[in-house]
Design brief:
heterodimer; A: 246 residues; 13 strands; B: 227 residues; mainly alpha; 5 helices
Chain lengths: 246, 227
């Protein structure tokens, strides 16, 4: 997997792990993110069982695996969190943050770890590292899942947006960052039209997110938006009519 | 924590081949499902017994012969039900453990691939190795549970075969009576045919299940020897 450091300052770092060349053809490509803060780490949407070997070995280059104290599942999909039992076997004291709505469903991936589940209320919450750095879980319900959160880090000014901003890139496009926003639209338009089920929920999320100071918007599929592209994306997404199968 | 230099791939016991685990799971589930089918067949046997009892009550000439038949079928049903209760309880252990072993095999395979992909040379190597060994030990334990459960089941199959060994004699008895009591010929014929079908089913099923048990036992022995 290609590893990219997105931010690093005072022992607080973000890493993106993307474009797995060993991924099986039929599996949708995903991005995994790791926040390392002091002696602790948090894995964001750690992925499905199929890619666990690649992800765990890639993460282990940055952090001892038992230092991953927190997992965040933006929603319940298998490409987000079906690797749960594999991770929890190695990180037994870790907490798994997830929308409360999906806790009973995610337990199907590994009920024996349900005691480690932290059920995030609809309004969201803050998670504080031992370093004192905090990240905020921002409600993103119906974008696309009925219980869904984004994660904002005010230190790094990075928003992990889950499936919002996702793009289905062609296999030969290995860019980690969006190169040309206008050309990138065609890779994300169909996805957002089909997968986002509510215009009002989408606009509510956009209004919340516009209040945040964001330097990078990191989706779970496709390329990362930087700088002005974040506003470009929010403007484009606001104009887009979603919830269409046509 | 062991020095990293000591943590070679050779230190990890092999992951059981996926095909073997799937095959074992398949055998265990087939066994469990076949055990459940026996329950349906015992219902057939019970029905033959009830019909015979009714016939005996109404038949003047065939009553004595049917009385023997009723008591033999009753004894057979009791014997078979006892064996089936054992098979059923063992079958549920088998199904549960086979399911657990499939998940464990999958987990071991993924950890092993992570190890091969570079985790072996990271600071997390000993963590993965310890967890791998723990999961592997759990799997070996589950394989032993399945092994002993299969041995119990094999003896259950033998009991089942033994219980049905008298059916041909019972059928002969019925055939003799058919000649003697013409007015009950049809009822005797039906009872004889149902008993024959029941025995054929038991014999065929036991043979098939025994084959699955033998396959599974040798597969487990092979897996345990490798581990």
């Amino acid at each position: 997997m290609e590893k990219t450091q997105l931010f690093s300052e005072g022992g607080h770092s973000w890493y993106a792990f993307c474009r797995d060349p060993e991924k099986a053809e039929h599996i949708i490509d995903t991005n995994e993110y790791l926040i390392v803060s002091g002696n602790e780490a948090m894995a964001l949407d750690p992925g499905g069982t199929e890619i666990f070997p690649q992800v765990v070995s890639a993460f282990s280059e940055e952090v001892a695996i038992d230092k991953i104290r927190y997992f965040f599942a933006s929603h319940q999909d298998p490409d987000i969190i079906s690797s749960l039992p594999l991770w929890m076997g190695m990180c037994r004291d870790a907490k798994v943050y997830m929308p409360w709505l999906w806790a009973g469903f995610i337990a199907h991936f590994g009920h024996e770890y349900a005691e480690c589940f932290e059920k995030v209320p609809d309004e969201g919450m803050d998670i504080r590292f031992a370093t004192g750095k905090t990240v905020t879980l921002v409600p993103a319900h119906y974008c696309h899942s009925s219980g869904n959160f984004s994660l904002y880090d005010p230190t790094a000014k990075i928003l992990f947006s889950g499936d919002i901003g996702a793009a289905l890139l062609p296999p030969d496009d290995n860019h980690v960052f969006v190169e040309d926003f206008d050309r990138h639209i065609k890779y994300m338009e169909g996805f957002h039209r089909r997968w986002m089920p509510s215009n009002s929920a989408k606009n509510k999320w956009i209004a919340q997110v516009r209040e945040l100071d964001i330097k990078m918007l990191c989706p779970q599929h496709g390329a990362i938006f930087r700088g002005e592209q974040v506003k470009d994306f929010l403007d484009w997404f606001e104009r887009l009519e979603v919830a269409s199968a046509g | 924590m062991a020095p990293l230099a000591l943590l070679s791939t050779n230190q990890l016991p092999a992951v059981p081949p996926h095909e073997d685990i799937v095959q074992l799971f398949k055998h265990c589930m087939e066994f469990t499902l076949s055990s459940a089918q026996f329950q349906d067949k015992t219902e057939d046997l019970r029905r033959v017994g009830i019909n015979a009892q009714i016939l005996a009550a109404h038949s003047i000439t065939g009553g004595a012969a049917l009385g023997v038949l009723v008591s033999e079928i009753g004894r057979l049903t009791i014997d078979i039900n006892e064996t089936l209760a054992e098979l059923s309880s063992s079958g549920s252990v088998l199904a549960r453990t086979a399911m657990a072993i499939t998940a464990l095999g999958d987990r071991l395979g993924r950890y092993r691939r992570a190890w091969d992909k570079g985790l072996a040379s990271s600071s997390s190597a000993s963590l993965l190795r310890d967890h791998y060994l723990e999961s592997h030990a759990e799997m070996v334990n589950d394989l032993r549970v399945i092994h002993s459960s299969l041995l119990v089941n094999r003896s259950g199959l033998e009991d089942l075969r033994r219980a049905t060994v008298f059916i041909p004699a019972l059928v002969s008895l019925l055939n003799i009576n058919v000649a003697e009591y013409r007015e009950s010929e049809e009822q005797f014929g039906v009872a004889a045919a149902e008993l024959r079908a029941f025995r054929d089913f038991i014999v065929e099923s036991c043979e098939r299940m025994d084959h699955g048990v033998s396959d599974s036992l040798s597969m487990i022995q092979r897996l345990l020897a490798k581990g």
